[in-house]
Design goal:
single chain; alpha+beta
């Protein structure tokens, strides 16, 4: 299983600001099952859609 990254947001957003969550909510409103995950290595929030890769690999 893999995930497709739709957008990335720096973790240093101002207090009370949740741009990754807002972006994911907008994608969910459009019917895309987007979720937010934290990428600790790059210190960023990623908005992703989980699923199998579409390259035809096993």
């Amino acid at each position: 299983m893999s995930a497709r990254v739709l957008e990335r947001f720096p973790a240093g957003a101002p207090r009370g600001s949740w741009p990754a969550e807002e972006y994911a909510a907008a994608r969910r409103a459009e019917g895309e099952p987007a979720t937010v995950v934290m990428d600790l290595k790059s210190d960023a929030f990623l908005v992703v859609v989980e699923g199998l890769e579409e390259d035809g690999g096993a």
